[in-house]
Amino acid sequence: MKRCIYGVLWSILFISCQSQYTHHDAILRAEAVMVASPDSAYNILSSISHPEKLPKADYAAWCLHYTHAQYKLQKEIPSDSIIQVAVKYYKDSELKKQSGTAYYLLGCVYRKLGENKTSMEAFKNAEYTVLGTDDNKLKGLIYFNMGYICKQDELYNQSLNYFNKSLRYFRLLNDRKYLAYSYREISDMCYQLDYPFDKVIYYSNLALRFSKEAADSVNYYSILARQGELLYNKDPKRSKQYILESFRLYPAQKAYSTVILSLIYTGLGQTDSAAYYLQTAFTDTSKVNSNYMKFVAGAYVRKAQGNIWEAFDMLESAYQLRDSVFQKRVRNQIYRTDKQYDLTKVNEKSAALEIANRNKVIWIGGLVILVLAGLIIFLLAYNRFQKIHARHIAEHERKDYELELKKSENNQKKELLLLKLMNRIDNTLRFNRLNVGVLNEVKKAEFMDEIRKQSILSEAEWEYYIQEVNQIFDQKMERLSGVHAQLTKSDKIVISLICLGLDISDSCSLLNMTKNAMYHRRKIIKERIGIQREVDLEDWLKQ
Predict the structure, then answer these.
(1) Which of 59, 106, 206, 516: disulfide with 122, CB 3.0–4.6 Å?
(2) Could you tell me the residue ranges of all domains in the chain?
(3) Is the pLDDT of residue 98 over 90?
(4) CA distance 535 to 426
(5) Each residue's pLDDT tens digit, 343-359
(6) What pLDDT score was predicted for residue 179?
(7) In terms of DSSP H, where are the helices of 434-488?
(8) Under DSSP, is residue 439 helix (H, G, I), strand (E, B) or coil?
(9) Given a cut of 80, is residue 86 above it in pLDDT?
(10) Whole-number pLDDT of residue 12
(11) If you ran DSSP here, which 8-state letter would residue 332 be given?
């Protein structure tokens, strides 16, 4: 009898320790009007004096909705101290919707503070917390923000995946406003990933239609400006029309729109208008991300005006800026954090399942210990099996993750090397086309020598790139040199370009060789390696 009483008391104590939701009238009223009128919700919550003196459940709810109202009204949020109260209170509770919302708002706060890595961790927590709920809008917003972070770090494939997930949930709600945002970003990711232009403009038109139906003028003109940017090479007049319309009615796009207008007017031969918008773009320092395009547009304008030296300086500035941004993206750990978090969550869920089962056994055993004695033994044996099985799964996933991480690092190195090579090739071709217009032959020769030094690969640099290719392709160059000692430096350069995927035309342009000379060089390489003439050298090197 005493055991039954103790069991009942233990059950009551266990239930009382669980987090409860608020019953505060003002907080509940603010929650009810949050979507339709966030300013009213903010005023209601601000009218509560000394909220920190409220009971824990009420104070946690106040922190949650107060941060939500601040975020919706785009007010400054200096730190995460308020929302952390809600995160800690709802964490590991049965209030999954509130807990997921708290993690989501924590991610939004960190994103506004520029802490993308911490923001991604918060959104991943929100993702796992709301999986079992029916709040499709919150799920869609979580995935949308995760996609936006990946977009900022130029992880376009991951970003497209997250935006597609957000689209799926917004479709369930038939929410035209958020559908427009998802389609807008999907169109942008398709463009960045070189999808067919028809597909890019198809998604952009869907976004334009849904934003118009939702009467969301801000998003509508933002999409219109983006379409103008997409069309500036294909239909300059329509592009100019779209951008000028959004330029007048959507000033938030002003910094970037002026850059595109400068490019359009340059293409149309209206250099005065191009110079005007370029000057406007450079005077606006609010959008740092458009600085690269400012310098590119400036180079085209200066070229059209005949100022070749200034065009060169601006192209060089654009290259240096783009290279620094790319290096920063490569070092970014968002993608690794995303994958590592998934693996950690698998282990945490296994451990949480074990603890939950153990607590259930203790709780039920206290009430009916005699009846469930046999079941306890069975559960302990089952839990042991689950632990062993979970360890095997975790070890297998860890090895897969390390392999994928290694592949990702190698691909990043290869892409960085290719980008540097292609930039050199592009600079060589671009400056060859520039009309220098210098009458003095001596100065012209000096100018061309300077361009070659800065923009064209020298022979001394090839040894460095051979070593880089050797590292990227698992010491392939070193193995070939060890087996075939007769391979010359010229042979290794040609083999390196083949490994990097450059075709014969680009290789000839880069090495200043004719195609006949290149084919002859490949024939010599085959003879020195000892493979038959009919064997494709590229296929042989890939094996």
Answers:
(1) 106
(2) 1-133, 465-542
(3) yes
(4) 32
(5) 466 556 656 676 777 77
(6) 96
(7) 441-455, 462-472, 476-483
(8) coil
(9) yes
(10) 43
(11) -
Burial of 169 from C-beta contacts in 10 A (0-12 / 13-18 / 19+): buried
Residue 48 has pLDDT above 80, yes or no: yes
Q: What is the pLDDT of residues 273-312, one digit of tens each?
A: 767 666 666 766 655 455 666 677 666 777 777 777 776 7
Q: Who contacts 475 (Cβ-Cβ below 8 Å, separation ≥6)?
A: none
pLDDT, residue 345, reads 60
Q: State the Cα–Cα distance between residues 290 and 361, nearest whole angstrom.
A: 60
- For residue 191, give the amino acid letter: Y
- Kindly report the number of other CB atoms within 10 A of residue 483's CB atom: 10
Q: Per-residue pLDDT averaged across 481-508, rounded?
A: 82
How many CA atoms within 13 Å lie on the side-chain side of 479?
8
Q: 230: which residues sit within 8 A by CB, 6+ positions away?
A: 191, 197, 200, 201, 204, 239
State the CATH architecture for 1-133: Alpha Horseshoe (1.25)
User: Which top CATH class is 465-542?
Assistant: mainly alpha
Q: How many CA atoms, within 13 angstroms, populate the side-chain half-sphere of residue 402?
A: 5
Q: How many helices (H) and strands (E) does the chain have?
A: 26, 0
233 backbone dihedrals φ, ψ, rounded to 5°: -90, -25
Q: What is the DSSP string of 284-325?
A: --S-GGGHHHHHHHHHHHHHHHT-HHHHHHHHHHHHHHHHHH
Token code pair at residue 373: 């004695």
CA nearest neighbour of 423 among 320, 307, 325, 297: 320
DSSP annotation of 269: T
With a pLDDT cut of 90, the percent of the chain lying above it is: 32
Q: What is the DSSP letter of 65?
A: H
Average pLDDT, stretch 522-526? Answer: 86
| Radius of gyration of the chain from its Cα atoms, rounded to whole angstroms | 31
Tally of CB atoms within 10 A around 460: 7
Token output for 302 = 């200066």
**Higher-confidence position of 280 and 202:** 202
Whole-angstrom Cα distance, residue 227 to residue 218?
Answer: 14
Q: How far is CA 485 from the centre of its chain?
A: 45
Q: Are 33 and 40 in contact (CB under 8 A)?
A: yes
Phi-psi label, residue 457: left if phi above 0, alpha if psi -120 to 50, beta otherwise: beta
pLDDT at residue 494 greater than cutoff 90: no
- How far apart CA 184 and CA 125 sit, in angstroms, is 26
Name the residue among 270, 268, 203 with its Cα closest to residue 230: 203
* Tens digit of each residue's pLDDT (9 = 90 or more) over 381-402: 888 888 888 888 888 888 888 8
CB 335 within 8 A of CB 158: yes
The more confident residue out of 307 and 453 is 307
